[in-house]
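Project outcomes to date are best conveyed with an example. Our students and postdoctoral researchers have been running inverse folding experiments weekly, and each run begins with a structure described purely in tokens. The record below, which covers 635 residues, was selected by the lab manager from last quarter's runs and is presented without edits.
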């Protein structure tokens, strides 16, 4: 994006869209649509929803009679898979590519048209049904980045089962807790997954987790790495064997769902305690992901869209699987990471497949920047027309590198702020919106965001405060699965009538929002959302540990890194070996992404008189900052 044109005077460093970008954009007048949606929220969303197919239309767009339990498209019948696959089979899209997959080593490539997608998803859906799974049952999906993870999600949705995808980088404890909480009947996994040339033994982790998960009746195992794995007779089934059964045919009716029926749950870390099962539904989530991807990344049939996230996070759910397929575009799924075997791997994929829109996380950009410009320069990246970022604030330096080196100053950088809970982009530009590096610009159509102080009073411009959202939106979480009370407390009770995001932010005079970071005990490590409570409970499960505290501190590449403080049980002495053992212990139990940067042994942890660890104080001390109000600190 170049600093050209000047539609209106704005403060700070502003990058205006080029005439060519404006000419190409589907939506040229951002203000007009924003104004229309502001005046008539329900009308805006009804129009968006009308672009999709429904078995039965809604009686009411929004039911807000029982806040904060909002309902969208009340009375309507649909199925997200009907719009992601079935409806395309009646059009030219039938033979267009839905999914392109490339293996980590680049030696294998698999592509699926919408027609093929329908066949693969139907086959898996029939197999899942044959395992006794029906509408409303939960299915845990714990896999690597292979096409079958996409089939599995869509197959569940097709028959009305609720999928619960657990990120393949999590380990035994995290997986077990999530299976147990969701009371899943079925687990779908792989024998293993490739990661930077090594194998992650997914099936072995499942076996370990299932020792404590009595609800699971069956396990489907997709062969990916070809390693020897234990198969428990009666419980474990190879997917390739089941594909030979007569039931595994390519025909499976798409279940008619109520718009408000659950589509999936996805666990995410909150401020306290165990991860929360965020619940999304068929109708509203479908409309929200469709509409946001359409306007924000302006996707069309010619695009090859690549979101580098893992399908196991919300970004993958909304913008590798559902959003792109509902829009009928071609979505790229790459098995590997950015720098294996060399730091040109992603640029190679862009060139090889002619990717037109590339969406990734600031941490990846910062990591790749370190390897220098020569790596991307080896590749023809001229197919790119838009770039995007998500997951954490992007520092202007990384923004500018991305703009210059990857986008060649011709691709707008779409910085999308949103959350597992929001399901869809919430604060984001579209290609025609002037950009300021580091700001996600303004709320999406129909939304109103406000920064407030501790008491809930609107904060003046350029003043840090709590980011809140004022309007309901169709892809909003409906509740925390099985815990309505926690849903209300967590998101709606601090400022009645407002959704609390858990982020701090500022708004500038142009109405642009600048995210600062989380205000709760959530740590964003390389864009991955982790809770301090989970790291702490992994630490105290080690026999040497009496008490533990975890905090996030700034890190050049990861954004934040986990630092821990440990109080040992009597009889155990601090040593570098023990510190290393504890770091490994967390990685084994939670997953390698949660491995602490360091473990400090302490004699005491700062606590309130009621015994709560004051992480804020630890954080301030570690950074040499003022400790703030410590009047509640115990003696
Ligand atoms: O702190 C914000 C940060 O990520 C949090 C949500 O994390 P998660 O549920 O894992 O979803 C991540 C992907 C949608 C937010 O509360 N965050 C997300 N996007 C941005 C961001 N911070 C700054 N800028 C963003 N674009």
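After processing, the design step wrote out the following sequence:
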């Amino acid at each position: 994006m170049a600093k050209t044109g000047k539609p209106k005077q704005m403060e700070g460093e502003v990058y205006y869209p080029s005439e060519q970008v404006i000419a190409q954009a589907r939506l040229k007048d951002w203000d007009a649509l924003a104004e229309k949606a502001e005046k008539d929220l329900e009308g805006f969303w009804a129009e968006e929803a009308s672009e999709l197919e429904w078995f039965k239309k809604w009686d009411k767009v929004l039911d807000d009679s029982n806040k904060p339990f909002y309902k969208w498209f009340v009375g309507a019948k649909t199925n997200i898979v009907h719009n992601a696959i079935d409806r395309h089979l009646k059009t030219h899209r039938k033979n267009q590519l839905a999914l392109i997959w490339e293996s980590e080593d680049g030696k294998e490539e698999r592509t699926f048209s919408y027609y093929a997608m329908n066949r693969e998803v139907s086959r898996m859906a029939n197999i899942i049904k044959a395992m006794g799974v029906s509408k409303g049952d939960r299915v845990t999906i714990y896999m690597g980045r292979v096409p079958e993870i996409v089939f599995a999600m869509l197959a569940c949705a097709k028959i009305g089962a609720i999928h619960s995808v657990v990120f393949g980088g999590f380990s035994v404890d995290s997986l077990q807790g999530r299976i147990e909480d969701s009371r899943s009947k079925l687990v779908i996994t792989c024998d293993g997954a490739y990661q930077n040339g090594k194998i992650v033994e997914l099936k072995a982790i499942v076996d370990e987790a299932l020792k404590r998960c009595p609800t699971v009746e069956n396990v489907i195992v997709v062969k990916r790495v070809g390693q020897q794995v234990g198969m428990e007779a009666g419980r474990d089934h190879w997917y390739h064997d089941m594909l030979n059964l007569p039931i595994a045919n390519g025909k499976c009716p798409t279940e008619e769902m109520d718009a408000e029926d659950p589509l999936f749950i996805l666990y995410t870390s909150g401020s306290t305690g165990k991860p929360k099962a965020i619940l999304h539904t068929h109708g509203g989530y479908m409309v929200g992901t469709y509409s946001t991807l359409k306007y924000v990344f302006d996707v069309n049939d010619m695009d090859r869209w690549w979101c580098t996230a893992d399908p196991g996070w919300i970004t993958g759910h909304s913008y590798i699987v559902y959003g792109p397929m509902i829009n009928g575009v071609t979505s790229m799924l790459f098995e590997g990471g950015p720098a294996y075997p060399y730091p040109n791997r992603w640029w190679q994929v862009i060139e090889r497949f002619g990717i037109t829109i590339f969406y990734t996380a600031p941490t990846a950009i910062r990591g790749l920047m370190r390897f220098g410009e020569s790596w991307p320069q080896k590749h023809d990246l001229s197919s790119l027309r838009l770039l995007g970022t998500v997951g954490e604030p992007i520092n202007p330096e990384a923004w500018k590198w991305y703009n210059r080196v990857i986008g060649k100053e011709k691709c707008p950088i779409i910085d999308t702020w949103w959350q597992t809970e929001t399901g869809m982009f919430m604060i984001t530009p579209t290609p025609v919106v002037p950009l300021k590096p580091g700001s996600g610009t303004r709320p999406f159509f129909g939304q109103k965001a406000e920064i407030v102080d501790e008491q809930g009073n609107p904060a003046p411009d350029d003043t840090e405060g709590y980011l809140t959202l004022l309007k309901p939106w169709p892809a909003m979480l409906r509740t925390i699965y099985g815990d309505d009370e926690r849903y209300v407390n967590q998101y709606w009770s601090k400022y009645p009538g407002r959704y609390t995001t858990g982020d701090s932010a500022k708004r500038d005079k142009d109405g642009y929002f600048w995210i600062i970071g989380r205000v709760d005990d959530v740590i964003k490590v390389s864009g991955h959302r982790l809770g301090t409570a989970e790291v702490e409970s992994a630490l105290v499960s080690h026999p040497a540990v009496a008490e533990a505290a975890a905090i996030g501190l700034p890190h050049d590449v990861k954004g934040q890194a986990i630092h821990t403080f440990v109080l040992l049980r009597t009889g155990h002495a601090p040593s570098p070996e023990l510190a290393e053992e504890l770091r490994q212990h967390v990685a084994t139990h939670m997953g390698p992404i949660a491995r602490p940067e360091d473990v400090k042994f302490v004699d005491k942890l700062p606590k309130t008189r009621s015994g709560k660890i004051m992480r804020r104080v630890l954080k301030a001390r570690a950074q040499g900052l003022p400790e703030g109000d410590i009047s509640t600190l115990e003696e």
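The radius of gyration is 24 Å. The chain has a mean pLDDT of 96. The training component of this project remains on track.
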